[in-house]
């Protein structure tokens, strides 16, 4: 039995990779799944920092182990080895078209692509689509999930449809996979800063809409 391997990747910086990877790890752990978060972003170590905040600030919350691995030459076999010891691996990658991201896509089950619906993010999509296409040729089980992130509340209906329309023309192999959306909400940054997921915020900090959106992303990835 090997783990499901979920890689969160997009070479566009700030698209929401770490936010989504950490929240997926929380939801997976809350579902009783033995989950490992892999920080493959050597520059920032954001997921690793999040995990250590979690351990220090919330030792009573479900434990999420995090390891750092980023060497593009070795990360593929290392991930496959780790996959024999956990039920789910969630890999947060860096904001570069790195050998590590390509290697992770080669062994993954699902590539989660966060994208903000503004021009500069959208124009960068062909790069990740190319990584997906190449990986998929050698790893046919690889699926993709698009997360339209940080959309403005007023364009929550329109933006994903417009993005899909554009992608059908420019990145058709990614466009046919399921889309989910996350509205721009302060709760995401707050949760990350506390080492928790949006679903774990409590009292006045809890934002039920954010929690529900993230659960929908998790459900889409679980299918
Ligand atoms: N849906 C959202 N609403 C509001 N803020 C968000 C949302 N998603 C992400 N952010 C914020 O956007 C910023 C970038 O997010 P994040 O660090 O997850 O992106 P990233 O893709 O991991 O960045 P990098 O490429 O630098 O690794 C963070 O400050 C995060 O809190
Ligand atoms: Mg990051």
UniProtKB/TrEMBL annotation:
Name of the protein in question: Chromosome partitioning protein ParA
Origin: domain of life: Bacteria
InterPro entries per UniProt: CobQ/CobB/MinD/ParA_Nub-bd_dom (IPR002586), DNA_Partitioning_ATPase (IPR050678), P-loop_NTPase (IPR027417)
PANTHER family hit by this protein: COBQ_COBB_MIND_PARA NUCLEOTIDE BINDING DOMAIN-CONTAINING PROTEIN (PTHR13696:SF96), P-LOOP CONTAINING NUCLEOSIDE TRIPHOSPHATE HYDROLASE (PTHR13696)
All residue ranges annotated as the CobQ/CobB/MinD/ParA nucleotide binding domain in the record: 6-181
């Amino acid at each position: 039995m090997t783990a499901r391997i979920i890689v969160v990747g997009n070479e566009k910086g700030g698209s929401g990779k770490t936010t989504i990877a950490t929240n997926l790890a929380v939801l997976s752990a809350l579902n009783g799944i033995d989950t490992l978060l892999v920080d493959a972003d050597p520059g920032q170590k954001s997921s690793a920092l999040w995990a250590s905040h979690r351990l220090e600030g919330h030792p009573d919350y479900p434990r999420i182990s995090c390891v750092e691995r980023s060497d593009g030459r070795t990360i593929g076999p290392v991930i496959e080895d780790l996959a024999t010891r956990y039920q789910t691996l969630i890999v947060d990658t860096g904001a570069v078209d790195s050998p590590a991201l390509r290697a992770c896509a080669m062994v993954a089950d699902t590539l989660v692509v966060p994208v903000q619906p503004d021009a500069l993010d959208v124009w960068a999509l062909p790069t990740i689509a190319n990584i997906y296409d190449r990986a998929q040729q050698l790893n046919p089980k690889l699926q993709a999930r698009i997360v339209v992130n940080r959309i403005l509340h007023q364009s929550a209906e329109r933006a994903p449809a417009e993005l899909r329309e554009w992608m059908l023309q420019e990145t058709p192999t990614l466009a046919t996979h399921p889309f989910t959306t996350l509205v721009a909400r302060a709760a995401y940054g707050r949760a990350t800063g506390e080492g928790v997921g949006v679903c774990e915020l409590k009292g006045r900090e809890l934002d039920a809409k954010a929690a529900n959106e993230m659960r929908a992303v998790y459900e889409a990835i679980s299918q």
